[in-house]
Amino acid sequence: MKMARALKDGDVLLLENLRFHAEEEKNDPSFARALASLGEIFVSDAFGTAHRAHASTAGIADTLPAYAGFLMEKEITYLSKVTQSPDRPMVAVMGGAKVSDKILVIENLLNKVDSLLIGGGMAFTFLKANGFKIGKSLCEEDKITLAKKVMEKAKALGKLIVLPVDVVTATGIKEGVASKTVVINAIPDNEMGLDIGPKTREQYAHVVEGARTVIWNGPMGVFEMEPFAAGTLAVAEALAEATREHDALTVVGGGDSVAAINQAGLADAVTHVSTGGGAMLEFMEGQTLPGLAALDA
Description:
The protein is an alpha/beta fold and 297 residues long.
């Protein structure tokens, strides 16, 4: 308190990591009031933590006038645009390891998108649901029925779900491992799919480049390793092309996708790179984010 009162115009006071205090994650009212006593107005620019009802993200707004900062405003503007009033056609590219991590997002987006492109480890649960043999590829056996229901829902809504037609396979995820490209119905029993193949890359790029709105969350393969990075790079380049040539609104979010677009050197070539992983997913699921709901404006 003494240091806060000693601040002069233009000074900044940085507090230590509030998670050192158990009261932070508990959203303790007394702790929130103590934080509020350090200032007169609360401006939140932490979209990445807006999905958490913590003292410094939500509780403090019960005491102080609370407003969104410029970054928070930018996040809300772009994510609202792609989820509520997108220009069409709208395409969502979903990747990553597990269907369970993205199922609520997928179900919500099916009501909004024209096409949904699925890659990464999660694609193999959908492929197995379609009757393909997937070798040792990652698969959530308990989500196969759910994947079937999602595809049935998409068909009923007239929405297109696009799955890989070829993949890059190897016997394991390790440096120096031999890899090859196979069509989707020819994955060897002792190998796993670790990236989308060249025909799939071409197909996905064509769909993305023809879109007016694109949202991307999740890599197409194990992009951290060079033999399995081409699919994710192809998606990044397609988003950049759609932005540059067709003035499409392109939004990238999620830790791995953000890392991939930065690795490709294309972060400045898309419309918006979200700072929120979990927050972005929950926003796209249609959930109420406590850190947003607490703000006055």
